[in-house]
Amino acid sequence: MTEVPKASPSVWNGPNVLTALRVVMVPVFGWLLLNEGGANTTYRFAALAVFLLAALTDRFDGELARRYNLVTDFGKIADPLADKALMGMALVGLSILGELPWWVTVVVLVREVGITLLRFLVIRSQVIAASRGGKAKTVLQTVAIALYLLPYDGPVRIVAMVVMAAAVVVTVVTGVDYLWKVLRSRRSRSA
Predict the structure, then answer these.
(1) Are 97 and 156 in contact (CB under 8 A)?
(2) Which residues contact 28 (CB under 8 A, 6 or more apart)?
(3) What mean pLDDT is reported for the chain?
(4) What is the CA radius of gyration of the chain?
(5) What is the model's pLDDT at position 120?
(6) Cβ distance 141 to 84 under 8 Å?
(7) Which is the CATH superfamily of the domain at 14-188?
(8) Listed residue (117, 143, 120) closest to 55, CA to CA
(9) Interatomic CA distance for residues 82 and 76, integer angstroms
(10) pLDDT (0 to 100) of residue 190
(11) DSSP secondary structure code for residue 94 in this structure
(12) In this structure, are residues 16 and 75 in contact, taking their beta carbons and an 8 Å threshold?
């Protein structure tokens, strides 16, 4: 008896729609954040709401794709790009407004773009799965950005800076760890 091969899931599935929605939210978020120089409280809270909604779609699209076997090549590529676009817009926007030092934005974005490119370079030979550290990095970045988006100074800003400092440290450490894993894997395969 010949086994019928399983059909690939459609690109137009729930997880990919959530990813596409996140991409659409990025310019909306950016406009809300930068409108009136970031000084309008209503726009800031709206930017926070859009950012958190977009971050939630990131949380659920991958989980749904794995749970219901809806993983697609499109999703493997679009999901990390959508994540980087959202975080990038937040970091760059906060730096444009003078609320986040540019060096933080540069360090985080260089790591994020570098690891994303690394993943694409090795995608045929190995999958670089998200580690616990990578997940912690995402949570720390999201919390730090959400705190920075709040239109408050004082204790909230101090907490935002502390959480962002932790996020930067974890971002760099996990970036080095990913790079090390790829290099070690390549060496062991060539040996």
Answers:
(1) no
(2) 50
(3) 90
(4) 18
(5) 79
(6) no
(7) CDP-alcohol phosphotransferase transmembrane (TM) domain (1.20.120.1760)
(8) 143
(9) 11
(10) 72
(11) H
(12) yes
Provide the residue ranges of all domains of the chain, joining segments of one domain with +. Answer: 14-188
pLDDT digits (tens, 9 = 90+) for 15-45: 899 999 999 999 999 999 999 999 999 999 9
Q: Are the beta carbons of 43 and 32 closer than 8 angstroms?
A: yes
Residue type, 20: A
pLDDT at 183 over 90: no
The encoded tokens of residue 1 equal 């008896």
CB neighbours of residue 82 within 10 Å = 24
Return d(Cα 110, Cα 104) in angstroms, integer. Answer: 10
Q: Are 140 and 166 in contact (CB under 8 A)?
A: yes
Token digits of residue 135: 């997940």
Q: How far apart are CA 62 and CA 76, in angstroms?
A: 9
Provide the token pair at 92. 């760059």
Place of tokens 């974005």: 109
- Any residues with CB less than 8 A from the CB of 1 and at least 6 apart, and which? none
Short-list 146, 18, 29, CA closest to 85: 29
Query: Quick check: 128 pLDDT over 70?
Result: no
Question: What is the phi-psi region of residue 101: left when phi exceeds 0, alpha when psi lies from -120 to 50, beta otherwise?
Answer: beta
* Virtual torsion, Cα 136, 137, 140, 141, nearest 10 deg: -150
Q: Output phi, psi for 142, to 5 deg.
A: -65, -45
Cα→Cα distances 94→60, 67, 90, 116, 129, Å: 26, 35, 6, 22, 29
The number of residues in the chain equals: 191
